[in-house]
């Protein structure tokens, strides 16, 4: 049975329903709107923009969604499902724990089409209830993955054995969300790519053993070479 998480009027599922069961037109609207929201921002994109992009009437969109907020909720659940599924797939491979974090970072960055559009910032500012719901759902998934990553890293001698797993996992989550605050990290000074890469390295440098540091340096070097 699906476990439903209640965030006020915002509902999302820990296990998601089969999206293929949705009507075809509704699915197309969600896909198009999701792409536009992520590229241009949740506030910037209007229902007229979506209708024009799809060459359909705005009335068609309102047939499936009573207002823009309902569409934003659907789209954010869609994004969360895709990201969660991708991260689960990466974690199931049980790679080197350091490599795993780099792969997750690469995957998540691949979901950001335009780092200057600040979709997350707009979501937080104009749709705070939805943003908080996503944050809580993201917290559950991220804590689960980070705890497992830390345990495996300690077992393999890559992370320090004296780490408090619960504390470090929460600190990592806090940093991931804190660095998205554009009041602290304005996009004209800190790109999303820069913040994501620097924070991951900062996190790993604080928890690795000497052996783990050698592995970390290798991945940093490989990343710089690929760039």
Topology:
Layout lengths: L3 E4 L2 E4 L10 H17 L6 H8 L3 H7 L3 H25 L4 H14 L8 H8 L1 H28 L9 H14 L13 H14 L4 H17 L1
Antiparallel strand pairs: 1-2
Helix pairs in contact: 1-4, 4-5, 4-7, 5-7, 5-9, 6-7, 7-8
Helix content: 55-70%
Please tally the helical runs, counting DSSP H or I stretches of 4 or more residues.
Answer: 10
Rounded mean pLDDT is 86
Sequence of secondary-structure elements = EEHHHHHHHHHH
Give unreliable regions as ranges: 1-11, 13-21
Broad CATH class:
Mainly Alpha
Secondary structural class = mainly alpha
Q: In total, how many domains does the architecture comprise?
A: 1
CATH architecture: Orthogonal Bundle
Ends apart, CA distance between termini: 45 Å
Largest sheet: 2 strands, antiparallel
CA-based shape = elongated
Q: CATH superfamily assignment?
A: Tetracycline Repressor, domain 2
Radius of gyration, Cα only, in angstroms? 19 Å
Strand order in space, largest sheet:
1-2
CATH topology: Tetracycline Repressor, domain 2
Overall strand count:
2
Determine the strand fraction and express it as a percent band.
under 5%
Structural account:
The protein has 227 residues and is mainly alpha-helical. It has a single domain, classed as Tetracycline Repressor, domain 2, CATH 1.10.357.10. The protein is built from ten helices and two strands. It has a two-stranded antiparallel ribbon with strand order 1-2. A hairpin with a 2-residue loop joins strand 1 and strand 2. Helix 1 crosses helix 4 and helix 6 crosses helix 7. The longest helix is centred in the middle third of the chain and has 28 residues. It is elongated, with a radius of gyration of 19 Å.
């Amino acid at each position: 049975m699906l476990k439903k998480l209640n965030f006020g009027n915002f509902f999302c599922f820990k296990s998601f329903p089969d999206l293929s069961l949705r009507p075809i037109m509704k699915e197309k609207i969600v896909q198009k709107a999701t792409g536009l929201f992520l590229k241009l921002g949740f506030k910037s994109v209007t229902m007229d923009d979506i209708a024009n992009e799809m060459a359909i009437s705005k009335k068609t969109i309102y047939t499936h969604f009573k207002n823009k907020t309902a569409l934003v909720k659907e789209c954010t659940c869609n994004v969360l499902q895709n990201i969660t599924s991708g991260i689960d797939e990466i974690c199931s491979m049980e790679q080197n724990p350091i490599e795993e974090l780099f792969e997750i970072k690469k995957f998540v960055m691949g979901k950001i089409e335009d780092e200057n559009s600040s979709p997350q910032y707009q979501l937080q500012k104009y749709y705070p209830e939805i943003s908080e719901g996503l944050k809580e759902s993201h917290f559950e998934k991220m804590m689960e993955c980070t705890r497992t990553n830390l345990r495996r890293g300690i077992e393999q001698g890559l992370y320090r054995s004296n780490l408090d797993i619960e504390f470090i996992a929460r600190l990592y989550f806090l940093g991931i969300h804190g660095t998205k605050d554009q009041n602290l990290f304005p996009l004209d000074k800190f790109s999303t790519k820069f913040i994501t890469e620097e924070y991951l390295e900062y996190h790993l440098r604080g928890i690795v053993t000497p052996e783990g540091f050698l592995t970390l340096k290798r991945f940093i070097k490989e990343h710089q070479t690929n760039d």
